């Protein structure tokens, strides 16, 4: 499953969803341009589901205040785009299943180039 691909520009809202994942437990982000956010390379968990019936655990930086759940769990999220958000978002399930969404934010490649 190659997953979904989304394009947007800073200020747009995009929906991220866990296609085919039976029990989503967390979202992980692998930034395309980690230096843009002052981060190291690699995947990092950004949002967790809490125990059944409880609200989700708030997203970590750099998504705090911009990422919200559209349902009672974390199956569907809405992200308010910001420069540097480009990357792959993985929805991880309890049974090691995952879905992936590749996000391209317009202008990131230029905006996030290392100075000099």
Overall description:
- This protein has one helix at residues 108-111, and strands at 4-8, 13-17, 24-31, 44-48, 67-69, 76-80, 87-93, 98-105.
- It is built from 1 helix and 8 strands; from the N terminus they run E-E-E-E-E-E-E-E-H.
- Helix content is 3%, strand content 40%.
- The model has no long low-confidence stretch (mean pLDDT 90).
- The termini are far apart.
- The chain is mainly β.
Question: Summarize this, please?
Answer:
This protein has 116 residues and is mainly beta. It contains one helix and eight strands; from the N terminus they run ββββββββα.
Helix content: under 10%
Walk across the major sheet and give the strand order.
1-8-7-3-4
Task: Please tell me the overall pLDDT.
Answer: 90
Distance between the termini: 39 Å
Characterize the main sheet.
Answer: 5 strands, mixed
SSE ordering: EEEEEEEEH
Overall strand count: 8
How are the SSEs ordered, and which strands pair?
Layout: E1 4-8, E2 13-17, E3 24-31, E4 44-48, E5 67-69, E6 76-80, E7 87-93, E8 98-105, H1 108-111
Q: Which tags fit this structure?
A:
single chain; 116 residues; mainly beta; 5-stranded mixed β-sheet; 3-stranded antiparallel β-sheet; 1 helix; 40% strand; globular
